[in-house]
Amino acid sequence: MGAWITEARNGSADALGHLLETCRQYLLLVANKELTPGLQAKVGASDVVQETFLKAQRHFDCFHGGTEAELLAWLRRILLNNLANITRHYHQTAKRAVRSEITLPERMLIDLANAGGDPISSPSRQAIAREEDGALQRALQELPAHYRQVIVWRNWENRSFAEIGQELGRTPPAARKLWARAIEQLHLLVEAHESRGSQSGG
Predict the structure, then answer these.
(1) Of 105, 5, 3, which Cα lies nearest the Cα of 60?
(2) How much is the pLDDT for 116?
(3) Which whole number is the average pLDDT over 162-181?
(4) Are 152 and 120 in contact (CB under 8 A)?
(5) Number of CB atoms found within 10 A of residue 151's CB
(6) Position 141 pLDDT exceeds 90
(7) Least buried of 39, 47, 98, 167, by fewest C-beta within 10 Å?
(8) Which segments of 101-171 does DSSP mark as H helices, in order?
(9) Cα angle value 12/15/19 (rounded, 5°)
(10) How far is CA 27 from CA 32, 76, 122, in A?
């Protein structure tokens, strides 16, 4: 193996490819051991190994060892780093998903049940708007009517995306995407209101 390492270091793609293939089974064992059940549903051990090989090929000049054991240890570090990145990516994705599944206060959604209706007018509604959730209330009022409507259907009436899609003449995935865009726009508006509120308060 020392000869292949030398050839690979001298630029031989064939030698490097052969080297990596000899390590595949070991890396598959490591990947299968380290992948959590949750991640196994999203990414396979072979995918992690393949990504490890791609990085090893790009950065082989960083490998300074000369033995099989040193090569395996180097590749293992790359693989574990890949797994850490994958885990971080899916955790962030999960957090965004949870963030988008916000349950809006019922009293707000009652006000918005008739999407496109009149803005807050009664004294009681004005009082609600001045509470802690005022930023959310104002943000909801600023949303386009179709965004407000899909939020009402989903978060207040608990309709499925299939039902929402029927109402809109869209497929369920398209209805989900519309709702996700509405929620994202709502978050942006809320953050803008909260930012303005903190600046004016300070």
Answers:
(1) 5
(2) 40
(3) 91
(4) no
(5) 24
(6) no
(7) 98
(8) 106-111, 123-129, 134-142, 145-151, 161-168
(9) 140
(10) 9, 7, 67
